[in-house]
Amino acid sequence: MPIALRPRTKPPAERRDELMNAAERLFLARGFEGTTVEEITTGAEVAKGTFYLHFATKGDVLEALRERFVQGLLDAVTAAVAGQPRDDWRGRLAAWARACAIGYLDAASLHHLVFVAVPPPSREGMARNVLVDHLDDLIAAGAHGGAWTIEESGFTAVFLFNALHGVVNQAAAGEPTGDRGSLLRALEAHVFRAVGLRPEAG
Amino acid sequence: MPIALRPRTKPPAERRDELMNAAERLFLARGFEGTTVEEITTGAEVAKGTFYLHFATKGDVLEALRERFVQGLLDAVTAAVAGQPRDDWRGRLAAWARACAIGYLDAASLHHLVFVAVPPPSREGMARNVLVDHLDDLIAAGAHGGAWTIEESGFTAVFLFNALHGVVNQAAAGEPTGDRGSLLRALEAHVFRAVGLRPEAG
Amino acid sequence: MPIALRPRTKPPAERRDELMNAAERLFLARGFEGTTVEEITTGAEVAKGTFYLHFATKGDVLEALRERFVQGLLDAVTAAVAGQPRDDWRGRLAAWARACAIGYLDAASLHHLVFVAVPPPSREGMARNVLVDHLDDLIAAGAHGGAWTIEESGFTAVFLFNALHGVVNQAAAGEPTGDRGSLLRALEAHVFRAVGLRPEAG
Amino acid sequence: MPIALRPRTKPPAERRDELMNAAERLFLARGFEGTTVEEITTGAEVAKGTFYLHFATKGDVLEALRERFVQGLLDAVTAAVAGQPRDDWRGRLAAWARACAIGYLDAASLHHLVFVAVPPPSREGMARNVLVDHLDDLIAAGAHGGAWTIEESGFTAVFLFNALHGVVNQAAAGEPTGDRGSLLRALEAHVFRAVGLRPEAG
DNA sequence: AATGAATGAGCGTTCATTCAT
DNA sequence: CATGAATGAACGCTCATTCAT
Fold it and tell me: Could you check: is the Cβ of residue A37 within 7 Å of any atom of nucleic acid strand E?
């Protein structure tokens, strides 16, 4: 005989968000398999059953987390690049690297969780693809605009994306090679080098 | 009255290896959490209890797999670099990248399993560190020898290691940017660029 | 701003009937345990909570279904028997068997559901008892009237009732021993024999 | 960290039987859905997991119970009929009815459970069919041998089987129409009547 | 060394029921 | 009257680990 002690209704979107937030925090701390649905609902201060009012399975929250992450990062990167003059390829590339690195610095573990530790069912690295595609386009456009010479922009995009992801991850993992500022500077220099620009140039 | 159809006992090392092989195959195919101890022992053709004669917990096999992987890759990379003239830094760097890439191409999923999907308990990327340290030493030595100018060899090592890992992984993931040969050539060119060498030079 | 597309309220009796109809259909199709309250309310096109405005528990609908079934069948049987001359015992018995068989043929699964699959809490076969009692009375009256010789009318009533139920059920279960007409004829013959009448007699 | 307090091994068949016995008792007392696996294992004095060493699902015990019941009853009935002279059709029919009734009197609820309350997945009443078929053969053989005149032995078999089942069930349900002996006598008389024999004859 | 029956904590999911709106 | 979000006890099933043989 279930007794509803606190059946306080909230807008579905809000409840859903609270569940996602609790899940994100727990997945990050103990992994996906290491987190129980009950912990998530406890974290969101709802009853266990409420979880299934918003997600069909435990895996579904992860899916939702994935989408939320990708959208946020893509928005940030797009905005940063768009903030640069149309033909300043160097600036656009630097903006991309910087925005992406900052996004990862803020959410490296989350990215790891949703795309690496528990890869999406279909293809590995959907986010990777979305972001890499964006970078690919940028590099190809710069090459077309004469900013640099890159033969296979796809390869370079993958190369740079992973390099960036790695150094950021390393930094986030607590083995810092310096503060955030110097990280971004060093990253920029390496990105420039990778496309054949001289890092020190303005 | 049990009949010993096959030798019931084997040297511990051999049994252990068979269990590790079965575990590796299964972990790769179904993931760590998705594999049961019973499946491992069935795969190794021993009884369930035998597992615990060789490993204290399920996690321990993964640990052992990690160590086996790192040692093998490190040996290969070390040998490849040692095969180059002492002062041919360019050649040594290229050898490093090539050996490491080939090692990953041959065992990308295994690396993913033991270092990414189920990260080691203590610090993230022990293998990364062992291999990155090796690369770090190489870059620092080359800088010291005047082959290139790198201020923070550690950063560059992490940068390159992850870039390499990423492009190799992409290739392994079935979205090839070309065949293995062209992958290695493109990789070499980017590695050279990253340390400031001109790729096209011999 | 909710818009009342259909009248939101209905006479209680009507709502209750709709819920019972939906429940009957679902219970028949998927069993009592296999049907959820939500499916019933969906079937009746009302909200989940509305169910509890009409029934205290899920078991209560079944109870209501039971009563509805018994009443209907008893009415039909009573009417059929009453349609025969007062002293035509043979005719009355045949009418009983025929009406009861037809009632079951039309609702065999429903009977099975409410009296067999989920027997009433208290005594087994309330319907059986109501109908059996009716038959018992009829047989006893016929014996008293000299139509046949039956010592324990109760036993014979139970015997006949179950025999009837069984052959009808078999027919309903899709393993017909003939069409409905021949079923009723064969049944009549067996019923007559069971009370010691010669079947072929007029 | 599971601790085995009493890991006492028993022959699989014995454990399986103990689980089946516990399940039978509980299913009979509280129904299939009303019984939990844990109650079964508690009843059999084993741990929960042990259940799944012997049955894949909860439904599987019921299946096993079904088979055990049918086999036992069929054996008893066959033996009883075989104990009568080959051409004593009256005696064979009486033996059939008596053995079947006794079998049911001893296990009426069990029959109800395994064949009626939770019908087998495929067709309704496998036992019914097996036993009915047996009776069908007997009636047909008797008709062929001139013992009685029955046109549709299948119909009569179903009729008698269900009549028998009903009166026995009624008796078992605690509403006795007399003691076991008089039940069997009354049953015999009705069975004879149903095939057109005069009950009082020797 | 090897076995495999036994254990039991734990998990994801379901769903009858309640009640604030 | 009607709604449907919220509740939480309960259940079937899994599986890492133990240990008597």
Answer: yes
